[in-house]
Amino acid sequence: MKTDVSIGLLGLGTVGCGVVKLIRQHQEELVHQLGYEVKVKRILVRDIEKDRDIEIDPASITLNPDDILNDPEIDVVVEVMGGVNEARQYIIKALENKKHVVTANKDLIALYGPELQELAWKNQCDLLYEASVGGGIPIIRGLTDGLVSDRIQKVMGIVNGTTNFILTKMMDEGVSYEEALRDAQALGFAEADPTADVEGLDAARKMAILARLAFYTNVKLEDVEVGGITNLSSEDLHYGKTLGYTMKLIGVAECQDEQIEVCVQPTFVAQNHPLASVKNEFNAVYINGEAIGEAMFYGPGAGSMPTATAVVSDVVAAIKNMQLGVNGRNLRGPRFERKLMPLDQRYGQFYIRLHLKDQVGAFSKITSAFSALDISFKRILQTPDKRDELAEIIIVTHKVSLDRFQKVLLQLNEMPVVKEVNSYYLVEGEA
Amino acid sequence: MKTDVSIGLLGLGTVGCGVVKLIRQHQEELVHQLGYEVKVKRILVRDIEKDRDIEIDPASITLNPDDILNDPEIDVVVEVMGGVNEARQYIIKALENKKHVVTANKDLIALYGPELQELAWKNQCDLLYEASVGGGIPIIRGLTDGLVSDRIQKVMGIVNGTTNFILTKMMDEGVSYEEALRDAQALGFAEADPTADVEGLDAARKMAILARLAFYTNVKLEDVEVGGITNLSSEDLHYGKTLGYTMKLIGVAECQDEQIEVCVQPTFVAQNHPLASVKNEFNAVYINGEAIGEAMFYGPGAGSMPTATAVVSDVVAAIKNMQLGVNGRNLRGPRFERKLMPLDQRYGQFYIRLHLKDQVGAFSKITSAFSALDISFKRILQTPDKRDELAEIIIVTHKVSLDRFQKVLLQLNEMPVVKEVNSYYLVEGEA
User: Fold this and answer.
1) DSSP code of residue B46
2) Structurally, what CATH architecture does the domain formed by A139-300 represent?
3) Please, which pLDDT band fits residue A331 given cuts at 50, 70 and 90?
4) Which element (helix H / strand E) includes A194?
5) Average of per-residue pLDDT across B295-315
6) What does the pLDDT read at residue B389?
7) Domain A4-135+304-324: what homologous superfamily?
8) What is the pLDDT of residue A274?
9) Residue B229 in contact with residue B177, Cβ under 8 Å?
10) Distance CA B305, CA B20 (A)
11) What is the mean pLDDT of the segment spanning B97-108?
């Protein structure tokens, strides 16, 4: 009789080391849970000599992926190497060799999740990826099991720790984007090339994954509208704060009348909204369901050990399924065709900042433009500008359809009394 | 071939009506998920004539539990009738008749959960009770699946919506306990007899359930220390607010060195703590795990439809298990014997309010008592008292063992310079 389960690890970076540590530290609990010992039999690395903060038996390390993918003793392959093409090839081979796969790779799942899922089902294997969204937060299980009976209407999340750390610094300490980014890099919360994080691409991948699971539909990455945080000005953050908002990079996935929208945008969130108190590198996913109303899952969105928690919980699930002989049944769900929601059916509140020429009737001209499009104001803030012939105006609108908001933006840009439309952001919640 | 699954409902109150509604409204999704139609075949009620806000086929209603428990067509019994003895008898009979059971009954699970779980395993049936804690929040799955690979150190929660509603009113609007209770009753957030809620008993039951799952041990209800909110004074809430705290009824379950403590106490929570922003009838459970660090699950802790979400998600899980032939494997876990943690190994910060006689050296006498027991102060607030021969002192201590805190309380009560120790509360977080 088998007394242990062997896993193969593809990658031994931050998360890989966490997985090895967690399996060692919690071996007693794993044996209690599973009746089996969980052994990391083989680890694929790029560089054998690299210094790592854990001790690894040199015999278990390999440069050859086939030592894992072709080893009949290995039941579960854990992919924590990152990147897309190689990882995809290895996972395909693992599934074809009837190995269950656990991955933390959001880039890969966002791009090839549905294709890999099909392959997993065909081979009666598990493909699990809890760690791909929200690090250690069990948000994927929350959606697919915990809220399975509900009809999800909206998923709104802070799903990128790097940008949330930067924005927290900018809002709470008033530092510039550049300084906050340097701090994040120094503390290991941002990479040397932060593009994927600060441009919103990483968050977009995670939102695509969440939207697929929430709405049972095949959201493609290119369906996600993406905005980043690189152009935020400290003026806007200051004014937002004055108005009772905090700036967050918010991913929204919404489904209405079988149409969906998925976007990632810097957004002013009302201070009393549950997402406003999510600080630094933490993540949170806020869910609106027809029956549950609102719920939120909060926790560390990255980091070696938290992410390892999600990976190893998936490994446990795969092993339990092996014991029961029911692998390949997870995350199965109906697939609906859903169209993207057209702009005239999408609504949002907006913050807009602009400079008017200080002429008699200037303000009345812009308010007529708004009211002609039936856009009403919730808040107006006029501040004296240094350039004294100009007036700086901040407007927070009530809910407006996105097509009408785009129209008013066009009109404002063409009006002679408007010197410049400086910025506009989505607003969430009531400040 | 079977094309539907029949469930029997014990009880048709708030939650029962929600379950019927949810199954009707989401039938399409359920069929997609399961391949089966889910039919509520029979409903046990106490009063056939009672007005209900949903339409029910009179033929499906019965006063006789055996119409459900002995019906071979019924696969899943959903117990939402509440109460302990009858519900327990019916569930036992259902399990013995090889029916899977889903229950929302925290009183029953807190008292008889382990016994019923054993019976379910013996009969290869599922016994699921996600709705028993935190209403619609999938916290039980979060612990048993999502965080299965972690070693949970502490579970801290706001798990009673009634008291959280009352405390929110008292803190935010400054109203008295009596007035807040009346409001809660008028809005349906508190029952005519609110004892179980306001005395902390309901929260204690839920914490016992969570502690069992988190620490794999058989916590008994009598192991939970319980305090309620009926004696809170508006003075203390006012001073707490001044010091940066908000008052919450907090359940804590902690495990250290294989010893546990479980208690429910009114607690001052620092305003910047994630639990402080949980308002009104909402619930939240905050978890510390060795690997994940901190995570939180937030949502509606009660209500017809949210609770029905958790119930029907359990029904879906039971039916999926039926299809796979793996019922009776859920929530199985190792059981450790764990002792209760002795007072000298339990630590807490405390808020304490007392009146001193206004004598020279009085304050120095009490500070000596504290420092002799090695208890240091974090904050001190002295306020002039109306009774002008007295001084009112509020102290927030640093962490102190509970036995030493009890000693200092005894000494203070016996000191001639101390007129009265008015109140003391646990403090959580750094204000």
Assistant:
1) S
2) 2-Layer Sandwich (3.30)
3) low
4) none
5) 94
6) 75
7) NAD(P)-binding Rossmann-like Domain (3.40.50.720)
8) 86
9) yes
10) 10
11) 97
Mutate which of A22, A38, A140, A149 to disrupt the B interface (most B C-beta within 10 Å)? A149
CA distance A324 to chain B (A): 7
Would an 8 Å CB–CB cutoff place A150 in contact with chain B? yes
Long-range contacts of A414-417 (CB under 8 A, 24+ apart): A415/A365, A415/A366, A415/A369, A416/A357, A417/A356, A417/A357, A417/A359, A417/A361, A417/A362, A417/A365, A417/A366
* Cα–Cα dist B100/B77, whole Å: 6
Q: What is the mean pLDDT of residues A361-369?
A: 91
Q: How confident is the model at residue B332 (pLDDT cuts 50, 70, 90)?
A: low
**B137/A295 touch (CB, cutoff 8 Å), yes or no:** yes
Neighbours of B131 (CB within 10 A): 32
Q: Quick check: helix, strand or coil at residue B251?
A: strand
- CB of A335 less than 8 A from some CB of B: no
Which residue among A206, A378, A399, A419 is the active-site one?
A206
Distance CA B209, CA B225 (A): 14
**Which two tokens mark B352?**
């304490």
Report pLDDT for A334. Answer: 55
Predicted pLDDT at B311? 97
- Range scoring the smallest mean pLDDT among A75-79, A381-385, B232-236, B261-265: A381-385
Out of 3.30.310.50, 3.30.70.260, 2.60.120.560, 3.40.640.10, which CATH number does the structure's domain B344-428 have? 3.30.70.260
Residue numbers of B annotated as active site: 206
pLDDT at B401: 95
CATH number of A344-426: 3.30.70.260
Q: Position of tokens 């038996």?
A: A57
Annotated binding site of A: 10-17, 106, 191
The b-or-e profile of B38-69 (16+ CB within 10 A means b, else e) is bebbbbbbeeeeeeeeeebeeeebbeebebbb
What are the residue ranges spanned by the domains of chain A?
4-135+304-324, 139-300, 344-426
SS3 at position B155: strand
Q: Are strands B400-401 and B245-256 parallel, antiparallel or unpaired?
A: unpaired
Interface check for B277 against chain A (CB to CB < 8 A): the answer is: yes
For residue A132, how far is the Cα from the chain centroid?
9
A145 contacts chain B (CB < 8 A): yes
